[in-house]
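RECORD TYPE: inverse folding
INPUT: structure tokens
STRUCTURE:
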């Protein structure tokens, strides 16, 4: 059994992610929800806006699986409260989360500081107990294979502590991966961070850094004497590096969903030829971390073979950006989300769609991809 069509519904949830992926097998449909959360609804959104999205998801019938790429509000809030009840009523057969959410994960990996997400976290766990809870990491099974026959599913991230330890020495190339001006990065280098861990990595002065990075720096100073593993856990917690990166592939057509993964998460896959080959062929790219400067490594972007500066190129890369401008970051510090230089590259070299351009009347859009015998027309 092989799907003949894929339909991707991209919702405008303001600052957050919500993607409903449907694989069509003739008249039969298998539906996977990849994230459902918002930390700020679209400007002017009425009360109960997220309920409207939840009801639309439910209107399509059975939901076969839910993926929560990582435990941040803008990716899971819709799995809590009234919205969460609606999603739970769809009884997904698989609930996929990163290995760091596994109750069996080493102590210190669980995030406990976001109390407002508790309802979503508990509902995800309960749904997982009803169906099948899957805690995955790079290079392992997604748990979706039996639900999606004929679809290859690759878990590209997040790496485990052991996997990330193997690539830690490559950290020096980060400065060239970010969508900022090199001069700005160099100006941010200082000696405040702990010595000996990543001696060549760029460092940010706290005043210019986003709030989460400021928090991280403060924490990094406090824990400089602790074990390296503790340091990596702090990194994972703060920098979105626990995000699942999923790649769906049918024949030569593939779609990439990286959540909010940043460079430390990507590094494991980018360091291996097998994954570089897979990433090279991506046709649909869910832009990482709402277009932040540090979540689409330049080496990843350059890999995408379907980039083209000619808009009429058949099979040109499609980039889907779910974001809300003006919510995070600072243009003067080149940290605004979405980052201007990244958006320019996305628009120049791919067909760029942005959720915040959707009309209020229908805050979602479907993208259809024929999968003719494993060959896409797109
Ligand atoms: Zn996010």
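DESIGNED SEQUENCE:
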């Amino acid at each position: 059994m092989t799907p003949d069509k894929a339909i991707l519904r991209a919702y405008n949830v303001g600052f957050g992610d919500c993607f409903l992926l449907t694989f069509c097998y003739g008249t039969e449909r298998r539906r996977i929800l990849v994230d459902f959360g918002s930390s700020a609804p679209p400007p002017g959104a009425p009360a109960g806006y997220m309920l409207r999205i939840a009801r639309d998801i439910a209107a399509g019938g059975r939901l076969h699986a839910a993926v929560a790429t990582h435990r941040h509000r803008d990716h899971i809030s819709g799995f809590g409260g009234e919205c969460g009840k609606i999603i739970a009523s769809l009884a997904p057969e698989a609930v996929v989360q990163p290995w760091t959410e596994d109750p069996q994960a080493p102590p210190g990996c669980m995030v406990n500081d976001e109390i407002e997400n508790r309802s979503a976290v508990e509902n995800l766990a309960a749904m997982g107990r009803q169906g099948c809870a899957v805690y995955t990491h790079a290079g392992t099974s997604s748990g979706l294979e039996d639900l999606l026959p004929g679809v290859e599913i690759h878990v590209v991230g997040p790496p485990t502590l052991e996997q990330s330890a193997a690539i830690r020495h490559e950290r020096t190339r980060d400065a060239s991966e970010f969508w900022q001006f090199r001069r700005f990065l160099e100006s941010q280098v200082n000696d405040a961070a702990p010595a000996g861990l990543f001696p060549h990595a760029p460092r940010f002065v706290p005043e210019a850094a986003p709030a989460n990075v400021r928090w991280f720096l403060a924490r990094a100073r406090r824990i400089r004497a602790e074990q390296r593993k503790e340091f990596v856990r702090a990194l994972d917690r703060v920098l979105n590096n626990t995000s699942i990166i999923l790649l769906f592939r049918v024949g030569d057509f593939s779609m990439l969903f990286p959540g909010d993964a940043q460079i430390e998460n990507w590094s494991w896959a980018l360091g291996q030829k097998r994954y570089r080959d897979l990433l090279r062929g991506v046709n649909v790219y869910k832009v990482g971390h709402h277009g932040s400067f540090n979540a689409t490594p330049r080496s990843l972007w350059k890999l995408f073979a379907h980039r083209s500066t000619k808009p009429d190129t058949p099979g040109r890369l499609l980039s889907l950006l779910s974001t809300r401008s003006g919510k995070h970051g600072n243009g003067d510090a080149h940290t605004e989300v979405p980052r201007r230089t990244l958006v320019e590259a996305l628009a120049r070299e791919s067909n760029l769609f942005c959720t915040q351009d959707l009309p209020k009347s229908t805050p979602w859009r479907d993208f259809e991809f024929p999968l003719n015998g494993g060959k896409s027309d797109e």
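NOTES: The longest helix spans residues 118-130.
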